[in-house]
Amino acid sequence: MSSEDQDKQGDDREQDTRSALEYTNTQYEAVDEGSEKDNNQLKESVMESSVSEIVFRRFIDTAVDAIILITDDSKILLLNHAAENIFGYSAEELTGERITTIMPYLKCEGCKKGSREGFENWANNTLGRTEQITALKKSSEEFTIELSLSDMSIEDERTLVAVIRDVTEKEELKTKLEQKTRQIELANAELEEANTLKSEFLANASHELRTPLNSMIGFLRLVTDGLCETKKEELEFIGNSLDSSEHLLSLINDLLDISKIEAGKMTLDIEKIDPNKVFDDLYILTHIQAQEKGLKLEFESPEDDSAFVRADYNKLKQILLNLVGNSIKFTEKGIVKISAEPHPDKGFVEFIVRDTGIGISSKIIGRLFNKFVQGDGSMTRKYGGTGLGLTITKSLVELMGGFIKMESEGPDKGTAVIFTVPICIASDVPTIEEFSNAGPIAVEDSSKPLILIVEDDPVIRSIIEEILGRQEFNTIWAATADDAVALARKHHPAVITLDFGLLAREHAVLSTGWDIIEVLRKDEKTKDIRYVIISGYDGPIKEKIFNDDLEFKPELLQKPFDGEVLVEKVNNLLLSNAQTT
Amino acid sequence: MAKILVVEDDIMNAKLFDLILSRKGKHDVVVAKDADEAVKYGTSGEMHLIVMDISLQNWTYEGKEVDGVDLIKIIKSNKQSAHTPVMLVTAHAMKDDKENLLNASGADGYFSKPISDHVAFLAKIQELLATSLTEMKQDGM
Question: Are A205 and A258 in contact (CB under 8 A)?
Answer without folding.
Answer: no
